[in-house]
């Protein structure tokens, strides 16, 4: 049976970085609500545009996000889900759509989260994730085209972390209470974190 992995963690915990690797290594679909919303940031919807919420660090309304996840799950066999669910109502919706084989929480402290988010840079052509201190490309052409996300400024990062502690920590607590949460220390080199996650998937799949 295919792996259906949920990767949980605060903004900046390394979900995107690790999801890409997991998708490659295990042949999984990478489902990420953040990327999907960024690709449609100025789309007019019944709720307004995603940008109105994202640039303020707020959650985009559940109805919109659930639709994105619905469509993505319908097309995916095995997947790694990144950035969803972000509140208890999304978690409940997800449980009605699919069964998970693992719910993994990447644990990273707040100071490190702020450092990672404010230093994050993206390659708009490949979607590759870089960091000004920890991981910069050597290729001059890539260096020159790197971009910073609109919401990775210090001001919005503070708001996003608040939204995370208020809305998303209860989701993590929920999976902890049901006994399905696997906690992984996310404060190591990305290679080491990947190794830890792989061990969990290979040796201890749960039926979350
Ligand atoms: P998330 O998707 O959880 O918001 P990202 O994967 O985008 O997190 O990572 C946030 C930033 O931290 C990026 O700049 C990334 O390069 C960097 N990063 C990711 N994992 C690590 C790590 N283990 N150690 C140091 N920096 C990391
Ligand atoms: P990060 O992992 O760095 O916090 P994401 O790319 O996952 O960033 O999310 C960026 C923004 O997109 C969030 O701040 C929020 O506005 C919106 N978003 C992403 N996923 C969801 C979700 N599941 N529910 C509501 N809003 C979301």
Describe the protein.
Helix content is 49%, strand content 14%. It is of the alpha/beta class. It has one domain: Rossmann fold (3-Layer(aba) Sandwich). Strands 2-3-1-4-7 form a 5-stranded parallel beta sheet, sandwiched between helices. β5 and β6 form a beta hairpin. α1 crosses α9 and α4 (62-75) packs parallel to α5. The protein is globular and about 45 Å long. The two termini are 14 Å apart. The mean pLDDT is 95. The structure holds adenosine-5'-diphosphate (2 copies). Residues 11-12, 15, 33-34, 37, 53-54, 57-60, 65, 83-84, 86, 90, 151, 160 line the site of one adenosine-5'-diphosphate.
Brief summary:
This protein has helices at about 15-25, 35-40, 50-55, 60-75, 90-95, 110-120, 140-145, 155-175, 190-205; strands spanning about 5-10, 30, 80, 100-105, 120, 130, 180-185. It is α/β, with parallel strands linked by helices.
Beta percentage is 5-15%
Number of strands: 7
Q: Identify low-pLDDT runs.
A: none
Shape: globular
Q: Main β-sheet, in a few words?
A: 5 strands, parallel
Arithmetic mean pLDDT: 95
């Amino acid at each position: 049976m295919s792996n259906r992995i949920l990767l949980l963690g605060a903004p900046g915990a390394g979900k995107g970085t690790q999801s890409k690797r997991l998708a490659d290594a295990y042949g999984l679909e990478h489902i990420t609500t953040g990327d999907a919303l960024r690709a449609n940031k100025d789309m007019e919807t019944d709720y307004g545009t995603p940008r109105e919420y994202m640039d303020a660090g707020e959650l985009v309304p559940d109805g919109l996000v659930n639709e994105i996840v619905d469509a993505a799950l319908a097309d995916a066999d095995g997947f790694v889900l990144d950035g969803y669910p972000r509140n208890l109502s999304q978690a409940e919706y997800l449980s009605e759509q699919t069964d998970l084989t693992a719910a993994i929480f990447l644990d990273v402290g707040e100071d490190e989260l702020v450092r990672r988010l404010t230093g994050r840079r993206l390659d708009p052509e490949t979607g590759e994730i870089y960091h000004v201190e920890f991981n910069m490309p050597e290729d001059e052409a890539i260096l020159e085209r790197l971009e910073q996300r609109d919401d990775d400024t210090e001001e919005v990062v503070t708001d996003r972390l608040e939204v995370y502690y208020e809305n998303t920590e209860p989701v993590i607590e929920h999976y902890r209470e049901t006994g399905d949460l696997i906690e992984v220390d996310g404060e190591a080199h990305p290679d080491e974190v990947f190794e830890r996650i792989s061990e969990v998937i290979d040796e201890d799949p749960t039926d979350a």
